[in-house]
Amino acid sequence: MPILLDQILIQTINGIVTGMILALVASGLTLIFGIMDVVNFAHGELFMLGAYVGVTTMVATGNFWIALLVATVVIALLGAVIQITTLRPLLGRDPLTTILATFGLSLVLQNYALWQFGPVARKIQEPFTGHFSLFYLDYPWYRLVIAGLSAAIIGALWLFLKFGTYGIWIRATTQDRVMASAMGIPVPWVHTAVFAIGAGMAAASGVLFGPLVGVNHAMGLDWVLKAFIVVVVGGMGNLGGSIAAAIFVSLLEAYASLWVSPAQAVIVSFVALILTLLFRPTGLFVPTPK
Amino acid sequence: MSGAASPASPLVAVEGIHTFYGKSHILHGVSLEVGRGEVVGLLGRNGVGKSTTLKTVMGLVRPSQGEVRYEGRAITGLAPHRLARLGIGYVPEDRRIFRLLTVMENLRTGLDRAGVDEGRKQALLEKVYDYFPVLADRRNQAGGTLSGGEQQMLAIARAMMLEPKIILLDEPTEGLMPRMVSQIRQIIDALHREGVAILLVEQNVPLTLEACARIYLMEKGQVRHQAAAAELRADAAVIHQYMGI
Amino acid sequence: MTAEQSTGAAPGSLVSARGGAGSPILRTEGLTVRFGGLTALNDVNVEVQRGEIRAIIGPNGAGKSTFFNCLTGVLHPTAGRILLDGKDVTGLPPNRTSQKGIARSYQITNIMPNATTLENVRIAAQSRRHSWSLLTHHRAYRDILSRAEGALAAVGLAGKADELAANLSHGEQRNLEIGIALATEPQLLCLDEPTAGMSAAETHDTMELVRRIAKALTILIVEHDMQVVMELCHRITVLHYGEVLAEGTPAEIQGNPKVMEVYLKT
């Protein structure tokens, strides 16, 4: 019995750690959908490219934190360019059009990464090693730092949206794009900025997660799928919901892997998705459907 | 067209506008003008195209033919946010308050513009809270929790934050109690005293006759008649023709 | 101009000062619709005689669309009854009210743009009770086809049967909408702003169309165009804030001070 309790607690922590990274990825995704109705299938590739920029910068500077910063900024800029060239002209069209566009983009970016960096997985070195004793395990400090940092980034985003000048612009545009425009808010640029922010957040997640797995051109695929599940379960466009759902889904998977292999534990996320769509399609963590 | 004088160099001029919604031909060649500081009315029954005319001026809808000019310069097809920055304020028929933003945040969407220093922003806020004390009381409340009349006030106050030269007002008194209707009337007068031009779309005839200097009457997608308000006040038959049964 | 003057024929046999002889094709009793705190319709009692063309008018939010939605079963009334030809149809879903004989055209054109004009109408014609066989080609169902072609002819689109609906002009599309409703062979046809977005010429054509088809039907029409209302309709029901404000012939309504007050707010 006591052993099982330890395992549950360890998995809880694991679930929260993974959940926070997932939350970081999913927040960008839900923000983008909420404001411009774009389902960004290239989001996982922004995550992946962020990790690669992180790798490259680390090789050049040896400093993890600089790598994190550079990756975030570079991919945010890439996101802005993508939005202006590919997505802006498609605004207002059939949603299928943007889905196809971002899907195509994801293929382009994946293959670019393969071509640029080769098929061998790279590694990002953790900024610090070191463990503490968690029951019978040596638990790495770094994992807790990831969770903390992700929470901090999301917190900063929330503060910006709530209190920043441009935060109001973003919130107004999300609620009523047309009226926001009639109030002088430059809506096309707000869209670009939000896409860039989403991209930057995905990139940061990629760098933070990099030390835990190998960095390769296909690493985005798993994450984008999970991120979509989270966004739907949390309520599309609902930032708080995505965060709650990210942790919820990750915890479910973490607990499930006590009994089955982690590969099979993924099924739990899909079950959550299907149940949500059947019974609360607007999202589990949305107050009441309007 | 009877003899009310259109302004010599109008602030806003709409010429021969044809607007479609898909295949539905809503405006069949609408022309009108608003002079600097003028309060102009646009009357007509439901479905004649009054709101569509305002939306065309505001760039929310693109005309297939015709031109809109502001201060002599063609603005047809410009994005609404550019027009707002140029000094055109818009108060839509359904108010369109940002429901999840507070009253204050709603006002800030118009207040936070380039080139406006903190002092002027504060002064603008003070002024608007003076005009609408109820908004001052509710400044931290979410827009969606306000009553219909309060939302209408907020919609007008929000447009005033742009320090506009003209405000396009779409049926501001619809669904409001008589007491609020007279409040709206007072706001229109106050704005007029400040030199803000107003293009007032309405179905409330007495209010329009009192508040406006000149009135256009629309029917089936066209402006059919134009007259000074004074003339129309004396001529019930014309009003009856376009607004009655 | 009133209906009498423009058509030449006197619809007087259908219309008397209070409402015609014989049982009404439509009667609502105490029809009430409440959405939470909002009362959209309040105790609406309306009687429409067979063969009438009745206009439902009123300012914005008066409840006209809500009324139509109740008749066609899109909306469940909170209280009250709807009787079609004496039979209670209250609360029946739209597919059932359609089969009972209530048809409706919509304010925003509801046709299928990628089908031909004939196909659009044929689908409506098919909705009537029929026995189907998987092995029979659709062209063999002669009765459906003739019903569809008849509806097209009635709305003046017989010559455009094989034209894609998307290619029709706006006026033709709105008439197609009426044709689709006609193909279900209704007893009661509800037209929701049939002349919206039309030019004066198209409006005139639609009015002629309505006059032609009115001979075999009863028609309810929601309109804002007062000329159409005055020239076309036998009687007018004026709704205001969900209640019946006045009812009568066009002449009676024009002279009614309560109605003037509502429209002119004097």
Describe the fold and architecture.
The complex is a heterotrimer of chains A (290), B (245) and C (266). Chain A has 290 residues and is mainly alpha-helical. Chain A has one domain (2-279): Orthogonal Bundle (ABC transporter involved in vitamin B12 uptake, BtuC), CATH 1.10.3470. Chain A has helices spanning 2-36, 43-61, 64-87, 95-117, 141-163, 165-175, 177-182, 187-209, 219-234, 239-256, 262-279; strands at residues 131-134, 137-140. Chain A has a two-stranded antiparallel sheet with strand order 1-2. In chain A, helix 3 runs antiparallel to helix 8. In chain B, the strands form 2 sheets. Chain B has a 6-stranded mixed β-sheet with strand order 6-7-8-3-9-10, sandwiched between helices. Chain B starts with 11 loop residues before the first strand and ends with a helix. The mean pLDDT of chain B is 92. Chain B is built from 10 helices and 10 strands. Chain B has one domain: P-loop containing nucleotide triphosphate hydrolases (Rossmann fold). In chain B, helix 3 packs parallel to helix 6 (148-160). Chain C is of the alpha/beta class and 266 residues long. Chain C has helices at 3-7, 64-72, 94-100, 117-125, 142-154, 170-182, 200-213, 226-232, 250-254, 257-264, and strands at residues 26-35, 38-48, 53-57, 79-84, 87-88, 102-105, 188-192, 218-222, 235-240, 243-248. Chain C has a 6-stranded mixed β-sheet with strand order 6-7-8-3-9-10, with helices on both faces. Chains in contact: A-B, B-C. At the A-B interface, helix 6 and helix 7 of A face helix 2 and helix 3 of B.
SSE map:
The complex is a heterotrimer of chains A (290), B (245) and C (266).
Chain A: H1 2-36, H2 43-61, H3 64-87, H4 95-117, E1 131-134, E2 137-140, H5 141-163, H6 165-175, H7 177-182, H8 187-209, H9 219-234, H10 239-256, H11 262-279
Antiparallel strand pairs in A: 1-2
Chain B: E1 12-21, E2 24-34, E3 39-43, H1 50-57, E4 65-70, E5 73-74, H2 80-86, E6 88-91, H3 103-111, H4 118-131, H5 133-137, H6 148-160, E7 166-170, H7 178-193, E8 197-202, H8 205-211, E9 214-219, E10 222-228, H9 229-234, H10 236-243
Parallel strand pairs in B: 3-8, 3-9, 6-7, 7-8
Antiparallel strand pairs in B: 1-2, 1-4, 4-5, 9-10
Chain C: H1 3-7, E1 26-35, E2 38-48, E3 53-57, H2 64-72, E4 79-84, E5 87-88, H3 94-100, E6 102-105, H4 117-125, H5 142-154, H6 170-182, E7 188-192, H7 200-213, E8 218-222, H8 226-232, E9 235-240, E10 243-248, H9 250-254, H10 257-264
Parallel strand pairs in C: 3-8, 3-9, 6-7, 7-8
Antiparallel strand pairs in C: 1-2, 1-4, 4-5, 9-10
Helix pairs in contact in C: 4-5, 4-6, 5-6
